[in-house]
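Researcher: Next entry: NADH dehydrogenase (Agreia bicolorata).
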Amino acid sequence: MPKILIVGGGYAGFYTAWKLEKWLRPGEAEVTVVDPLPYMTYQPFLPEVAAGSIEPRHAIVPLRRHLKKTAIVAAKVTGIDHASKTATITPNIGEPYEFAYDQIVVTAGSVSRTFPIPGVADEAIGLKTIEEAVAIRDRILTNMDKAAGLPAGPERDRLLTVVVVGGGFAGIEIFAELRSFVSGLLKQYPEIKFEDTHFHLIEAMGRIMPEVSLPTSLWVIKNLAERGAEIHLDTQLKSAVGGVIELSTGESFESDTIIWTAGVMASPMLKGTDLPIEERGRLQVRPDLRVGTADEIVADAWGAGDVSAVPDLSGGGVGGFCVPNAQHAVRQGRLMAKNIVADLRGEKLVEYNHKNQGAVAGLGLGVGAFQSGKIAVKGLPAWFMHRGYHGLAMPTWERKYRVIWNWVLNFLLGRDIASLEARVTPRAAFEAFASRPRPAADAPAPAPTEPAPAAKKPAAKRAPAKKAPEKSLPSPEGAPVVVGGDPADTK
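Model: Predicted structure:
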């Protein structure tokens, strides 16, 4: 039976495996998905997860629950030798091992692309995973709790200042959702006024949301300004060391919440393969989603999603390639499953050709923006379009029901505003009060087996000496030595 190895369980990988289960005949092929995470994340919902509008577990799709005929391996693929058709799999626990395959599907996705700006790696957080979205939500709520007990001043301002770097779709959506979230929280925090909260979006280009028309992007800027959020265009982040934001305009302020959404790049795992890679680090893929160039095909290798440079035959792509978004990844995954089945059966393959149907963004409760060609919809109607589209696009009916029911409950009961930031250290409370065994007493010295040849008068028994207070004395080499304390406490 041919073995199909799928590298990555994101959009493209999940949909490929999901559809292969549907279209493969019994015994026609054996499918294995390798991913360190046991679930697929529906990334368009991350801004709403961060804003408390969607329960985090409802924005993911458990692989084992919905891929019943596929082998799921919790691991990373750290190497691919396609010449010998073997992949190196490094499990979450255990030693790496070799996996032989007949066909390989590379859908490893993308990671946040950052620049060597001082402080970003230490202070900022991305928005690519469900864990990041949950951490942002808990940080906002925890900071509100802290700020409510502080007087006006720099520390309070730091806690109530949110900075988003990047004005693309992801950046604008998380920025607008958090502005809406904090505005809604103020009724529960009478100690904090609206003008005490500060929101800054930093964009190096002269406009935001290049996926929509310029008039629509200007409307979004105006709408956010009316809601108390500030967008800095033609501005670069120069430093974020210690949470101190320094901009290219000379402006400076402090923030405890810095979110980075300024681009993505293909997964670095491609560097450990012998597959062809283009200049931007993406896998070279043909229109039929086979790996290769227009002149050469790499047999039995496939690629799709953010990790691949898929030609955009509709003519609407950037640089001639499909943009890395969920709309393409989902459709590419479906087509790739069809082409893999066709290849196994010796049938004709189909090229990927999808014209962008438009872009829709959620900008907080009751506010949205939609653009399709010259048609633009703004405000409440666009918000309903956003929720309707993504509610239906969420994979599996089980997940759809959970998300939509979540929205209904929020409408009836309001968003849950409890922070669970303490989940990062779940054993702290237990450890603080846990009883520990006392140190064992020194064992008595063993009695001599033979009497001493010349016994001396025994010395007088001394009372146990009291433990002297610790103090440091210089050693001959100049290093301090603790005197009177526990020998293990040397400093």
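Model: Note for the record: The chain has twelve helices and 28 strands.
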